[in-house]
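Morning!

This is the sequence you dropped in the shared folder:
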Amino acid sequence: MSGPQPGRAGMRVAYVVGTVGGGTGEHLAMLARGCAGRGATVTVYGPAQTGRRLFPGPRPAGVTVVPVEIADRPRPARDAAAVLRLRRLLSRATPDVVHAHGLRAGAFAALALMGGRRCPLAVTVHNAPPGSGTARAVYALLERIVAHRAGAVACVSGDLAVRMRRLGAAAVSRAIVPAPPAREPDAQAVAAVRAELGAGSHPVVLAVGRLAAQKGFGTLLAAAARWQDSDPCPVLALAGQGPLDQALRAQADASGIAMRFLGQRDDVPALLASAAVVAVPSVWEGQPLLVQEALRAGRPLVASRTGGIPDLTGEDAAVLVPPGDPDALASAVLSVLGDPALAGRLSAAAAARAAALPTPDDAVEAALALYQQLTSHAAA
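The structure's back. Tokens below.
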């Protein structure tokens, strides 16, 4: 028998993370703060840059960040060094539970724990596999390592849960990834956004996210090219930054789209309030924060039927279209803009769905319950 099971007030939690941003980073930071606030001692192992991004201000009490350079792409020598460093750090720290976020971090943690002190490992799988090629083969290897080594696997969408069960993962559950609460914007803030967009009497179609291939913004711009002759012509506003910024700008210029590139924003609630339709054209998503924010704001949604999006919206709180289909996307946006009754039904359904969304407290409590379950089994 091992030692006594730790209570949450004395629990030592080690988070392992690679190069992340967006919702994955926000989720991990939320769990770290929440667990530390409930008396756990939290150490985050990951790239120095990730640590600065997760905790940009003063470090929360009870949270320590230790640099381990887990890169976002395979580099055999560097990856081996990172696993060895993580092994030494975890051996010295003797955490009660290790929780890795992402398959690379999960595989690194699993390898680091092999042959050492018995310590339970949980892994949250945040993303779908790449489409093809070497990246997909590497992803498949990481999946197998996690499936066979982790004591618990939490997945952000049902399709990922099915994949991990097929690979033999023993305990698969759905991760709770809530959007942080946001204050309702005042009328002045919304008016300022409308003035900035220069939309006048034209409806605004809003998209928000990292300017990367997964988000499907190229499909959205192709859809917008199809509605340029409509009257009134919707104004497309895109908030975010990323590697496809210049390519998307060139696509918009070539198509003559009425569009506003807004860059990174910290006033998403005001942007949502100014929008007639919120578009989420992603190739794949887990539990996207934007969809949750749009539901809470009661905005009409047009979104891809992919990943975990339908689980959030149901069939009544969004018009769901196939990913990568600009014709279907354009038709759906125009149908909402042209039918006030449909827009009203979507808004009402969004508010109803929002009332059932999980909160950050729900996510932290679920994580702590999982940690206590894992440590109890390890002590048996």
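Headline: The longest helix spans residues 360-379.

More detail when I'm at my desk.
O.
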